[in-house]
Structures are given as structure tokens and as C-alpha cells.
């Protein structure tokens, strides 16, 4: 069993707050509880004890801050970095359970949101800030979709961006816990990625212990059914293919 996307500081949805500034401040206050040095020390100590863990981090794209972020990250011995887009400007679009962030969907419009996400995702893929692109079609999280033609175009472009980046893509069960009720990425993106020879990791994006390896069997069945026979892992920072267990014979 391989779960490549685990958070060690629990972050539960907060109580709704009245303004975007307050909501953003609340996210900041929660995330500040994390201490990068303490986190790295704990994971490295676990490795010394022989536990099968790798030192990873989820890196959020902050436009215009790529160089500064790369500098900070270079000071740590990460085995793997998961690149993500959660923010479009000051909008934490995946926090659709928070009223002010949810309202932004109507203010910006669905088409603009999807377009801006793709632009940010392209910047992330070319930033050098990660080895794996996490939950690559996260913009669908709130189940707010553009029309079919635009969605198909979005998916084609996204696959082009991923394939030309040479990075691996996370296949995540977290979407099954969200409004969209679909894994990341969608089945059609996954099929195109497979055809393009893109490598994958598997992740639950667990924010609490009960979510670790969430729907793992279903996730393995899905990627195996799409034609993948391997995932990749990054022991000691070097990308290594790992064969998926063969399908059980009934
Ligand atoms: Zn994420």
C-alpha cells in the first residue's frame, strides 16, 4: 500500500467568517501551527527507526514567488514535493464550505475560474517546484462545471501541460469525499495521461488519521482498469517504479 499525500497537521473546515480577509486570516492562523524544521526532524527520525516513510511536502503555487519558495525548499532534504494549485489570487477556491469563498464562484464565473486555474497550473508545471502534480483537476471540486466543450478543451490542454512537463501525476481518492464525488483526475484525463506515458502516484490527501489510504482498493482498481501497471515512488529522492499488485482472481 502506497499513500503519497498525507497531512500531519489536522485541518478541519472552520466556522464561516464574514469577509474574505477574515477567512484568509483564519486559514493562515491554522497553517501557522506547522513548523517545517520539526516536521522534517520527525520524519527523518522515523526513517532512522526503519518506518517506510518518505519526506514530502505539498508546495502551493504562489505566482511571482517561485524563486523565493525554491530557495526555502532547497534548505531541506525532501524526497518528493507535490505541486498544487489551491489559490487563484486571494481566492482559496477549494474551501467551498466557507461562505465567502463559495460566493466567489458566482462573482468570478465558472468559465473564468477554470481558465485561471489552467493558467496557474501551467505555471506550476513549469516552476520546478515539484516532482509530482497533485490533484491536477482540483478546480472541479465544488461541482461547478463549464459546458462540455470547454471541459473537454480544459482536459486536453491540461494533459498537454502535464505530458510536456515530464512530471508524475497524483491519482487521488480525496475527490470522493468532496462535492464533486469523483477522483482526481477524471477518468478521461487519466486515460489520456496513460496514453501519453505519464507516470502516477496514489494518494488520499488525508487530513486526519481516519482518511489515510482512503478508498485505496477502489483507487488501485481504477488505475489498473485504466491500464496502469506501475506507480512511482521516490525513496531517498530517486524516482522508482513500483508494480501494482496483480488483480485478485475471483
Ligand atoms: Zn492539496
Précis, in short:
The chain is an alpha/beta fold and 250 residues long. Helix content is 39%, strand content 13%.
Describe this structure in words.
- This protein is of the alpha/beta class and 250 residues long.
- It has one domain (20-243): TIM Barrel, CATH 3.20.20.
- 39% of the residues lie in helices and 13% in strands.
- The chain has 8 helices and 9 strands.
- The protein has helices spanning 20-31, 36-48, 66-74, 99-108, 110-125, 148-165, 187-195, 216-226, and strands spanning 56-60, 80-84, 87-88, 91-92, 132-133, 168-172, 200-203, 230-233, 240-243.
- It has a 5-stranded parallel sheet. It has a two-stranded antiparallel ribbon with strand order 3-4. A two-stranded antiparallel ribbon has the order 8-9.
- Helix 6 links the parallel strand 5 (132-133) and strand 6.
- Helix 5 (110-125) packs parallel to helix 6 (148-165) and helix 6 runs parallel beside helix 7 (187-195).
- The chain is globular, with a radius of gyration of 18 Å.
- The site of zinc ion has 6 residues, from loops.
- Zinc ion (ZN) is lined by residues 58, 84, 86, 134-135, 205.
Amino acid at each position: 500500500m502506497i499513500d503519497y499525500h498525507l497531512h500531519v497537521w489536522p485541518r478541519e473546515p472552520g466556522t464561516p467568517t464574514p469577509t474574505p480577509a477574515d477567512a484568509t486570516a483564519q486559514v493562515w492562523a491554522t497553517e501557522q501551527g506547522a513548523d517545517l524544521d520539526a516536521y522534517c526532524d520527525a520524519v527523518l527520525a522515523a526513517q532512522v527507526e526503519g518506518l517506510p516513510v518518505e519526506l514530502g511536502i505539498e508546495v502551493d503555487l504562489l505566482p511571482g514567488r517561485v524563486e523565493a519558495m525554491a530557495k526555502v525548499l532547497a534548505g531541506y532534504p525532501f524526497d518528493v514535493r507535490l505541486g498544487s494549485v489551491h489559490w487563484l489570487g486571494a481566492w482559496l477556491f477549494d474551501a467551498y464550505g466557507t461562505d465567502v469563498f463559495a460566493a466567489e464562484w458566482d462573482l468570478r464565473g465558472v468559465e473564468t475560474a477554470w481558465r485561471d486555474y489552467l493558467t496557474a497550473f501551467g505555471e506550476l508545471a513549469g516552476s520546478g517546484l515539484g516532482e509530482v502534480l497533485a490533484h491536477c483537476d482540483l478546480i472541479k471540486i465544488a461541482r461547478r462545471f463549464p459546458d462540455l466543450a470547454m471541459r473537454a478543451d480544459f482536459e486536453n490542454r491540461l494533459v498537454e501541460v502535464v505530458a510536456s512537463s515530464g512530471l508524475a501525476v497524483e491519482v487521488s481518492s480525496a475527490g470522493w469525499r468532496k462535492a464533486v464525488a469523483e477522483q482526481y483526475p477524471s477518468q478521461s484525463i487519466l486515460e489520456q495521461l496513460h496514453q501519453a506515458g505519464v507516470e502516477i502516484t496514489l494518494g488520499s490527501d488525508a487530513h486526519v488519521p481516519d482518511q489515510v489510504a482512503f478508498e485505496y482498493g477502489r483507487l488501485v482498481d481504477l488505475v489498473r482498469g485504466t491500464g496502469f501497471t506501475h506507480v512511482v515512488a521516490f525513496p531517498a529522492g530517486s524516482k522508482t517504479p513500483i508494480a501494482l499488485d496483480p488483480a485478485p482472481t475471483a
